[in-house]
């Protein structure tokens, strides 16, 4: 049984034990982590308990410590044998350890990291204690059969730790397979390149990458694009690539044909996004054939490291979940679960209800186990026993996307117009009806209360949206095809219309099904977009966790700060639907250098002009636009001031492309010439490259970014300089590529997943938007420090003055808890 103890430790002992004690680098959680580790080491070394009294007037640190059952049992034994309370035992163990060890900072590599140490030596890498701790945490999750949360700051070396933890697992459990899921292809490349740099002497198991459909291009779509004269310069190189059957480049870490990434390298100016495989590809397309070849699992080795995206893992889990739900044994267990739920609801006796609850948990676990066995070979991915999820703060949204369908009504209109032009079964009247339906949706958005309308709402706006979508669906019915030639482009557009009908039908019928349908509008509410999917993914998550022997969810942001100085893991435990019996949250790994480079943190003053307007202000449309412009003018002034005093580049994290567009017109000419303005049409990598080019040209660049820049951006003078510009990385001491991060507006409303919207509408008592905002804010600040040894000239600027408003009091407290470890200017 675990135990919680409270005791005093002299501050001079804390200084000896805790790196950075007395500075923002060592917060309350860091102190607890070191004290717990010290107790464990003292017990491991079987140190004698020294009877050292703490003077009553000594400067002390009060420590409240939770010990797991194993440590707690050892402390109880010492408590009984020495005749002192358990808290005193812990205090004396710590004082004894400090007395014995002259240099007591816990900076030595703990045991169990032999493979990691071998890799360091073979590759000529330096020892990294934080990386060793990540490795041990991952290994502990696997060995304990846990579904663990592992929070570790960016820059501690999570990539190598995860690869070697996967390798260690394969050695400990021969014949298994370890999957590593990451959010983006760029991160897949990072893992593959890190794997490729490992020395052959390590004898690593093979690494196999699996890509989603959108990472392959359609040969016919590429040829269609090349008909445009504006891409004449790229024509020869791309035609040669097509003749070579879309072969990969020799230096690519992924030896697959027809990859989007290969085409980007061959023809950077080509808009490759329009060439990727559609949701309804031609089965004879060689790009589609290359995609399908990945799933010939019988030719794969049983023991390997499997690399995929969150989305691919989500699709595979969805397939397995569907197959499992149709197993007779699983259905029988589900029936028993429902019977028990009804019995629990009717039971009034407390003891009997508890017994029934335990029986329910056991049957649920049995159902998940049976489902995992029944669907082992049913997913897109081959069976795997262990799982590592990188950037796990994005995983729930990816799982929601995998379980949802998306339709751009603008794209539907364009496809219908093309089909009509080519004589493919859509009359001019039907095209006009689709256009009219979209125009009605745009009109509805003008008086809607928000930028999202759920079709489940009982409002006039929702009723009109349902009626308009039904009219669009009716107009999508395809008539007789007049033109029967082999027009592949028209066939593809026709398939788009047919696919759109499926999504529209699901949306129109969502009130009588388990589907959740949303219509969303852009920041300027011009183009409606339709999302249809499940409101919850806990069933999918349960299936995933039930199918693995152990897993770890890794990220720099998984835990939320608490008012008492500790951290809470509950939010992500619930989002990821991790079962109680297997859940474990490791202490966050936060090295002192993460904060040593922070020169200052500037929180907002009570300045009305720096309060961004919102719909809650109940302004008219015209007044809202005017207030938005006034606010952006103030932001422009602040950014200009910050850039003038910055030691290097400045990243301004915005919450919408529309605001960035307005800012681009407000910026002074001198600053605009050194600025990068993010747009929806430019990828994050393209924007990052432009920012780095300005910095390498000696300009003090400012980058206005949004979207993935909050959570998935790695920018600086290290690897990005090499991967994006092909230039050698700068040393940490001379890296001033990015020195300031500015956050004009708290990142509310950036989570657009169907499940997030569902939670907000169905569990209003939980502050979902606030929790999501705090995690995103923490992620945004993490863009600044990406490596150790940076100069102490980094600054963080929060401009959003709304935190001073009375109704923002709770939000203000949470925001300040995020900034507290950094100090403030």
Question: How many structural domains?
Answer: 6
Strand order of the largest sheet: 5-6-4-7-12-3-15
Instruction: Specify the CATH class of the largest domain.
Output: Alpha Beta
Low-confidence stretches: none
- Would you give the CATH topology of the largest domain? Rossmann fold
Distance N to C terminus: 44 Å
Query: What is the helix fraction of residues, given as a range?
Result: 40-55%
- Please describe the biggest sheet, giving its number of strands, its sense, and whether it closes into a barrel: 7 strands, parallel
In total, how many beta strands?
21
Q: Kindly report the average pLDDT value.
A: 86
CATH superfamily membership of the largest domain, which one?
P-loop containing nucleotide triphosphate hydrolases
Task: Assign the structural class, choosing from mainly alpha, mainly beta, alpha/beta, alpha+beta, or little secondary structure.
Answer: alpha/beta
Compute the gyration radius: what is it?
Answer: 29 Å
GO molecular function: ATP binding; hydrolase activity; nucleic acid binding
Pfam family, one: DEAD
Keywords: ATP-binding, Hydrolase, Nucleotide-binding, Plasmid
Tell me about this structure:
- The chain has 825 residues and is an alpha/beta fold.
- It has 6 domains: 3-100, Arc Repressor Mutant, CATH 1.10.1220; 109-210 and 301-327 and 375-403 and 537-590, P-loop containing nucleotide triphosphate hydrolases (Rossmann fold), CATH 3.40.50; 213-294, no CATH class; 329-365, no CATH class; 405-534, Orthogonal Bundle (Fumarase C, Chain B, domain 1); 593-822, 3-Layer(aba) Sandwich (Rossmann fold), CATH 3.40.50.
- 47% of the residues lie in helices and 12% in strands.
- The protein has 31 helices and 21 strands.
- Strands 5-6-4-7-12-3-15 form a 7-stranded parallel sheet.
- A hairpin with a 5-residue loop joins strand 13 and strand 14.
- Helix 14 (328-346) packs antiparallel against helix 15 (350-374), helix 17 packs across helix 20 (488-508) and helix 27 (684-696) packs across helix 28.
- The longest helix is centred in the middle third of the chain and has 25 residues, at 350-374.
- The protein is globular and about 95 Å long.
- 42% of the residues are buried.
């Amino acid at each position: 049984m675990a135990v919680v103890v409270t005791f005093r430790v002299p501050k001079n002992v804390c200084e000896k034990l805790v790196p950075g004690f007395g500075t923002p680098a060592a917060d309350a959680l860091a102190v607890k982590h070191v004290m717990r580790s010290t107790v464990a080491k003292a017990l491991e070394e079987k140190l004698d308990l020294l009877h050292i009294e703490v003077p009553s007037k000594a400067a002390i640190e009060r420590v409240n410590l939770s010990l797991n059952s194993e440590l707690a049992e050892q402390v109880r034994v010492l408590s009984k044998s020495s005749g002192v309370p358990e808290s005193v035992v812990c205090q004396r163990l710590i004082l004894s350890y400090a007395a014995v060890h002259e240099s007591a900072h816990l900076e030595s590599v703990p045991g169990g990291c032999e493979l990691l140490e071998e890799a360091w030596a073979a590759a000529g890498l330096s020892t990294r204690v934080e990386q060793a701790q990540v490795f041990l945490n991952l290994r502990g999750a696997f060995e304990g059969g846990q579904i663990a949360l592992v929070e570790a700051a960016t820059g501690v070396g999570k990539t190598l730790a995860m690869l070697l933890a996967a390798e260690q697992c394969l050695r400990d459990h021969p014949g298994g397979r370890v999957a590593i899921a990451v959010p983006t292809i760029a991160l897949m490349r990072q893992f593959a390149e890190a794997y490729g740099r490992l020395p052959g002497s390590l004898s690593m198991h093979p690494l196999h990458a699996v890509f989603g459909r959108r990472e392959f291009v359609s040969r016919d779509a590429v040829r269609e694009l090349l008909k445009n004269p504006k891409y004449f310069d790229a024509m020869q190189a791309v035609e040669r690539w097509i003749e070579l059957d879309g072969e990969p480049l020799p230096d690519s870490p992924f030896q697959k044909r027809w990859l989007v990434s290969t085409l980007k390298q061959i023809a950077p100016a080509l808009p490759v996004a329009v060439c990727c495989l559609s949701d309804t590809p031609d089965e004879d397309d060689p790009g589609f054939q290359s995609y399908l070849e990945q799933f010939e699992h019988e030719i794969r080795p049983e023991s390997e490291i499997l690399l995929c995206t969150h989305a691919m893992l989500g699709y595979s889990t969805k397939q397995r979940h569907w197959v499992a739900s149709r197993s007779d044994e699983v259905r029988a267990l589900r029936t028993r679960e429902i019977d028990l739920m009804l019995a629990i609801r009717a039971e009034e006796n407390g003891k009997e209800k508890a017994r029934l609850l335990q029986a329910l948990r056991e049957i649920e676990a049995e159902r998940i186990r049976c489902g995992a066995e029944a669907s082992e070979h049913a997913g897109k991915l081959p069976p795997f026993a262990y799982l590592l999820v990188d950037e796990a703060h994005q995983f729930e949204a990816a799982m929601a996307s995998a379980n949802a369908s998306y339709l751009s009504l603008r794209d539907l209109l364009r496809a219908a117009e093309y089909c009509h032009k080519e004589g493919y079964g859509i009359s001019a009247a039907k095209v006009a009806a689709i256009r009219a339906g979209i125009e009605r949706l745009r009109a509805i958005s003008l008086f809607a209360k928000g930028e999202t309308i759920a079709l489940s709402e009982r409002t006039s706006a929702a009723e009109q949206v349902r009626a308009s979508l039904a009219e669009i669906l009716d107009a999508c019915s395809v008539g007789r095809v007049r033109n029967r030639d082999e027009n592949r482009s028209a066939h593809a557009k026709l398939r788009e219309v047919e696919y759109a009908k499926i999504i529209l039908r699901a949306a129109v019928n969502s009130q009588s099904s388990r589907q959740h349908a949303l219509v969303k509008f852009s920041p300027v509410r011009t183009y409606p977009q339709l999302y249809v999917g499940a409101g919850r993914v806990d069933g999918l998550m349960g299936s995933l966790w039930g199918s693995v022997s152990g897993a770890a969810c890794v990220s720099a942001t998984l835990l939320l700060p608490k008012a008492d100085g500790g951290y809470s893991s509950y939010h992500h435990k619930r989002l990821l639907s991790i079962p109680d019996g297997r859940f474990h949250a490791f202490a966050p790994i936060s090295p002192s250098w993460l904060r040593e480079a922070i020169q200052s943190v500037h929180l907002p003053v009570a300045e009305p002009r720096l309060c961004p307007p919102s719909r809650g202000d109940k302004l008219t449309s015209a007044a809202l636009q005017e207030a938005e412009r006034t606010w952006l003018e103030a932001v422009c002034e602040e950014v200009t001031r910050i850039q003038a005093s910055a030691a290097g580049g400045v990243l301004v994290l915005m919450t919408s492309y529309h605001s960035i567009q307005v800012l681009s017109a407000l910026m002074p000419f001198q600053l605009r010439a050194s600025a990068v303005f993010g747009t929806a049409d430019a990828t994050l990598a393209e924007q990052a490259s432009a920012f780095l080019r300005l910095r390498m040209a000696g300009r003090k660049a400012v980058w206005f970014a949004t979207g993935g820049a909050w959570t998935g951006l790695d920018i600086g003078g290290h690897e990005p300089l090499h991967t994006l510009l092909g230039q050698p990385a700068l040393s940490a001491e001379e890296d001033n590529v990015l020195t300031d991060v500015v956050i004009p507006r708290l990142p509310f409303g950036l989570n657009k997943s169907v499940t997030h919207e569902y939670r907000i509408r169905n569990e209003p008592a939980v502050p979902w938007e606030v929790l999501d905002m705090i995690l995103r804010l923490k992620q945004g600040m993490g863009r600044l420090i990406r490596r150790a040894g940076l100069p102490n000239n980094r600054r963080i600027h929060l401009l959003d003055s709304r935190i001073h408003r009375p109704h923002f009091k709770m939000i203000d407290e949470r925001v300040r808890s995020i900034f507290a470890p950094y100090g403030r200017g």
